[in-house]
Write the structure tokens for this entry.
Amino acid sequence: MKPLLEINNLSTHYHLEQGLLRAVENVSFQIAKGETLGVVGESGCGKSVTARSIMRLLPPRIGRIAEGEILFNGVDVARLDPRGTEMRDIRGGQIGMIFQEPMTSLNPVHTIGAQIVEAIRTHSDLSKAEAMEKAVMLLDRVGINQPEQRARQYPHAFSGGMRQRAMIAMALSSDPALLIADEPTTAVDVTVEAQILDLIAELKAERDMSVMLITHDLNVVGEVADRLIVMYLGRVMETTTAAKVFDAPAHPYTKGLLESLPAIGRRSRLKPIKGSVPGPHERPPGCPFAPRCDKAMAICQTQPPTFRIDDDTSAACWLYDDEVRHDG
Amino acid sequence: MTDDTILSVADLSLRFGAKPKVKGSGLLAVNKVSFDLKQGETLSIVGESGSGKTTIGRCIARLYAPSQGSMVFQAKDGPVDLATLDKAGLRKVRREIQMLFQDPNASLNSRMRIGEIVAEPLEIHGIGTKAERIERVRSLLERVGLSADAVNRYPHQLSGGQRQRVGIARALTISPRLLICDEPVSALDVSVQAQVLNLLGDLQKEMGLTYIFVSHDLGVVDYISDRIMVLYLGTVMELATRDDLFAAPAHPYTRALLDAMPARVGGKHRKRKVLSGEIGGPSGLRKGCVFAGRCPFATDICRTHEPELRPWRRRPETRVACHHADDLDLGSYDQPPPEPESLP
């Protein structure tokens, strides 16, 4: 079966005053219909830029897709005009998106209902009244009590968790085939986080929707994702499954992340990765993780290709090269 | 209060924006909080946003003046009540109590060089000669893992983790005894967060520091704490040793927090249990237990009478504010309660 989303060798560059920033370099992954893919990484790894590339929401004149294709339902989104009808039909229509901080993505001077109605009418021929009816239904579905009254309220009257629910309702208003969730729970409390993740999982199951979940939190991925990619400085370091990543991480970076993670019941000393993520204009040559990697070798000065480890795992690391293994 | 108690907080309350003569007006951020802190220990304060955990830390540092209660601190020159201390007294005691903030971008002056930032507390308190100060700054920066050339840099030239190291060095220049850490690793990347947590642990051992550690992340708290205080709407729900809190939570809210945490049990992620509703507002007059509205065990008494914080029958070292705690077995963090969830 063809995947719903297939990204091949995507590179997205930002042309900044300080020079060229390779925010995303040669990234490839797929999302099947009904699948949840986690995209994990620390700040500056390019996970949000990848999402913005898919949505064609890069800052005009600065951000540019330099190379690669983004096949969504067979259409190469990378070649579409970001302002054209086809792209507008996909953005917010076939692909919905929710962001980390719902307050900055909701308009404070319009009611929640009006904003959902606008989203619905952008992508359908429903009348205002019909759209409002659908908006109330969606608010009810995402777990907002008294949805009729709530639809008439402004964002400031909503709590953080309710705003995120309203954002989800808006993203679902066009029945998208793919939902991109960019750190949807980072700004909310842990009890609310559990509620939101539950809601996304339920909605995904009942609509057979695909989800791309961007997060810095491996635990979140372990709970809700089927497969995941781990990104570092714009590159995919590892592609694996949520079932495998905790017990058998392949890339030294993934291992480092896991050993840095405090978890309840963990009593052994944390083993942090040495150093810190370099700034956007200090990217090392070769493997971007090499300067922080305990296993770094001379060959790591050259960017490694992606090595296939088994059916569902691959890693961009020279440790998996046959010749390197034999020599070592 | 025992001999090694460094701080004894009793009945601490803070009401923001209260109108005089209007009972229950304003916003009750901290509600009759009491606890003792032992020399050299780490006490964590956990809770969701709006629980008042940051506010308690700021009361102790006297960034806020409490409305009620006492905070007796064993200063080098003898005990003082931080709650009623005058300006001169505060200035003196702040040599012994320092704060570490969540966001090192916001708490470091962007126009000062790192060397100046770290030396400033020494200057304010008039400690040492210029040469001694320079030497002190140099050795501290080295100790927190920054290179010598950081002295001449500005905060924006450092990464988030390096900036938090500067925050730590700055807090430690005048050799305080109590450090109030307010979400010190929440803004950091996972790989750097672990470095800072280890550094804080090492410094505590070397210097005999006492920590109050404010955090929302139970994983971090489990790693760093000796004891943990669980807060809900400004009120202490439970106070227990780290091991007891996770092995035998006494309060239904603690149980709910543990259930909402991501955790791996038996090689895979367990399903999180979701606590319905959200934390309510802190304003207005209150009656009964602040958690009653979301509590699966709430009965009439919970809605009419506020429970007191008292020793728990099953583990007397744990103190819990719940009318039904003695009748509840809430399991442990990786084990759900053994019996159906209703009162016997």
Notes: Chain B touches chain A at residues 48-49, 159-162, 189-195, 197-198, 216-220, 222-223, 246, 256-264, 267-269, 272-276, 278-279, 333-334 (CB under 8 Å). Residues 311 and 319 of chain B are 4 Å apart (CA to CA). Chain B is about 30% helix and 20% strand.
